[in-house]
């Protein structure tokens, strides 16, 4: 469980690096490598020790360049792989993790209807998103409290909720009764790098990541919050195509034909 939390943090760190920093770093390394190459030519003939030091520096810089290249490629290649996801099942699979990342004083309750329609989303990214929302909820309840994870289906017929396109949605909610946000915080909480958690504790990328996933998936992140009352984070995800009414049998014929 601890490791999955660390993985989520690592993902955030990678996102942070690739958000321009890796690019800048690459430019710096190019300057360093060019300077080293000039310096190498000025090493007096026969000074093997100086040559070795310069070569060491070149090797280090080249390794750094290759690492930043890989980071850049990783961030570009992080295309979503959406699929049909049973949300209650996904949450059940994370139960231990959610409880352990919620601390001993936080009650975790899940509430799902008996048959919740599946969502069409990248399951791995959804796990990270849920983890981010749960970590936020836990952080908002330092003295303990109630954390509820619930699901429901919604139909949008006109553009109403956060400008959502009309369609069928599955809504995953993470609800806490923690410290909540005032209006100024609520207005800024989606900004990348915005955090109220202090140096070394928050990266300010959690909600940006969740928002990005929702938007890229064709859904939305909807936040409700009141100072001293709590926060509700709703992840609106497109419903996966309804299964066809006629179930194909292994021989390829529709089951109705057999009846
Ligand atoms: P981080 O958690 O690293 O600060 P986030 O993007 O996840 O970054 O959150 C940004 C800010 O939004 C938090 O620092 C906090 O002020 C506020 N916030 C997010 N979720 C909640 C919540 N459930 N309750 C109260 N405040 C929250």
Automatic annotation (TrEMBL):
<protein>
    <recommendedName>
        <fullName>histidine kinase</fullName>
        <ecNumber>2.7.13.3</ecNumber>
    </recommendedName>
</protein>
<feature type="domain" description="Histidine kinase">
    <location>
        <begin position="20"/>
        <end position="241"/>
    </location>
</feature>
<keyword id="KW-0812">Transmembrane</keyword>
<keyword id="KW-0597">Phosphoprotein</keyword>
<keyword id="KW-1133">Transmembrane helix</keyword>
<keyword id="KW-0472">Membrane</keyword>
<dbReference type="GO" id="GO:0000155">
    <property type="term" value="F:phosphorelay sensor kinase activity"/>
</dbReference>
<keyword id="KW-0175">Coiled coil</keyword>
């Amino acid at each position: 469980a601890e490791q999955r939390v660390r993985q989520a943090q690592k993902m955030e760190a990678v996102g942070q690096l690739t958000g321009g920093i890796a690019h800048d770093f690459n430019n710096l390394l190019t300057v360093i490598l060019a300077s080293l190459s000039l310096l190498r030519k000025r090493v007096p003939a026969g000074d093997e020790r100086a040559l070795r030091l310069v070569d060491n520096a070149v090797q280090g810089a080249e390794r750094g360049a290759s690492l930043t290249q890989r980071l850049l490629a990783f961030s570009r290649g992080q295309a979503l792989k959406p699929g049909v996801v049973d949300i209650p099942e996904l949450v059940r699979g994370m139960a231990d993790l959610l409880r352990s990342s919620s601390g001993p004083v936080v009650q975790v309750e899940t509430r799902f209807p008996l048959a919740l329609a599946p969502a069409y989303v990248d399951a791995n990214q959804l796990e990270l998103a849920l983890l981010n929302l749960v970590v936020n909820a836990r952080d908002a309840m330092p003295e303990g409290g109630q954390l509820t994870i619930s699901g429901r289906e919604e139909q949008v017929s006109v553009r109403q909720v956060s400008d959502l396109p009309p369609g069928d949605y599955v809504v995953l909610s993470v609800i806490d009764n923690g410290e909540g946000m005032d209006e100024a915080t609520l207005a800024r909480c989606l900004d990348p790098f915005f955090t109220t958690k202090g140096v070394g504790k928050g990266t300010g990328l959690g909600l940006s990541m969740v928002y990005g996933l929702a938007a890229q998936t064709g859904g939305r992140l909807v936040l409700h919050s009141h100072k001293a009352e709590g926060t509700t984070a709703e992840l609106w995800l497109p419903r996966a195509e309804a299964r066809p009414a006629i179930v194909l049998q292994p021989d390829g014929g529709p089951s109705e034909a057999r009846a």
